[in-house]
Amino acid sequence: MNILMTGGTGFVGTHLVKELVARGDTVYILTRQERTDSEKIHYLTWLNGQQPDLTGISIDVCINLAGAAIADKRWTESRKKLILESREMATEALVSIIHDLQPKPKLLINASAIGFYPTSQTTFFLDTEEHEAADNFLAETVISWEKAARASGIRTVFTRFGLILGTDGGSLPLLTKQFAYLAGGPLGDGNQWYSWIHIDDVVRALLFIMETDALEGAVNITAPHPVQQKKFAELLGQAMRRPAKIATPAAMIRLVLGERALLVLEGQRVYPQKLLNQNFEFTFPKIEDALTNLIEE
Predict the structure, then answer these.
(1) What is the Cα–Cα distance from 65 to 49, expressed in whole angstroms?
(2) CB–CB of 88/144 below 8 Å?
(3) The pTM is what?
(4) Distances in Å between the alpha carbon of 258 and those of 3, 47, 139, 245, 251?
(5) How far does CA 162 lie from the centroid of its chain?
(6) Could you list the mean pLDDT of each consecutive 10-residue stretch along the chain, which spans 297 residues?
(7) CATH placement of domain 2-296
(8) How far apart are CA 214 and CA 273, in angstroms?
(9) Which sequence spans correspond to the domains of the chain?
(10) Is the sign of the CA dihedral 205, 85, 132, 172 positive or negative?
């Protein structure tokens, strides 16, 4: 298949491109920087509204992973504007490309996030049910992001990613650094839910969506066994052979992180019902296996 992708050089994109190429697909990556093509990876310049040249190329699937990082900088008003507008603008531009393509791709996979759901310690959030959105910046971003993608006119899947665990990106490198300095443990009261997923299962889920026409709309990309943060910290400490007893007070985290403290102090108990209904099998359904695999790497 021919795949048109944004965000192909990011954390998830890099892992996904590797698997697409390994199975024989050709990937066209929209980029804002000059890069060197390879046999199966082609970079298309995408600057200031410039449409990429796709003449003679029949695109089967579009994948939109573009957007400024959410967790790496303090949420000033200018940073929040960048986070929101980078997603809206990239999605709107990709949708415009889709409208011009002939024949039309069969699928748009648009990145999204479980930040859509309100934080709760008791509610199970299923992608087979209707849930009201949270009232915060993350939910606002997700709503705008998904709205822009709905205009594609083709089958569209909003992949609501949970906490993605990998050794070369996401939150795990920062957390392991804390434990390396013997400073790991519960964050706040530790009762908040972490709906996590191993990066390998993220890639497998995206490939599965490409092959499963029944999947449409919001799809939760999380493992089927979310854990509370204090349990996550305990198991991470065990995997690293480090203690997990130093609690960080919520007030200190809010002082350091500001508004984005909700990323670590609050959480949702999210369940991947649609994937399971289609018999998707997770390689790492439980956090113990995921952490053992990643730490041993």
Answers:
(1) 18
(2) yes
(3) 0.94
(4) 38, 33, 17, 24, 10
(5) 6
(6) 95 97 96 86 80 89 92 88 92 93 96 94 94 93 95 97 92 76 77 96 98 97 96 90 80 83 86 98 97 85
(7) 3.40.50.720
(8) 13
(9) 2-296
(10) positive
